[in-house]
Amino acid sequence: MPMLRRSQAIAGLAALCVAVLPVSGALAAPPAKHLPTNPTKLANLRGQQLVHKFFVLLRTDDNHALANFLAPGFQIQRATGTHLNKRQYLAKHSKVVSFRISNLHVTSAPHLIITTYNVMARQYIDGVIYKQTPQARLSVFEQIRGQWYIVAHAFFSTPAA
User: What is the pTM of this model?
Assistant: First the structure.
């Protein structure tokens, strides 16, 4: 009997941890009763939420929330060859007016979500507008002490001109 209670407690704790996936507002995780039980489906849902959160933060230009979402060792690589760390990116992050995510693929490992996807966005980087056709992206997220962070992002689009 004690073993049954322990396994029930572990299952309950796991459901609680998943239910409080730290994304805010409209991006909050669905109630535990609506979460997929299949690990692959759960990783896909989490990856979708995290990618969406990143672009919402860029669209709302919320530097404080963005700073809290970027991991301390965050790095971005752009098609232009530029790369920025967290401090540099916060000073010069892209301005997203609108976006649509498609073709999302997720792989995962414990505490890690790796996503590749296309984004069609009206986006400015250093005042230059970028192509508004679906462009390939790569984002890597890590769970640190229960909180999800974006640790790396690659952007393969070039300016529209």
Answer: 0.76
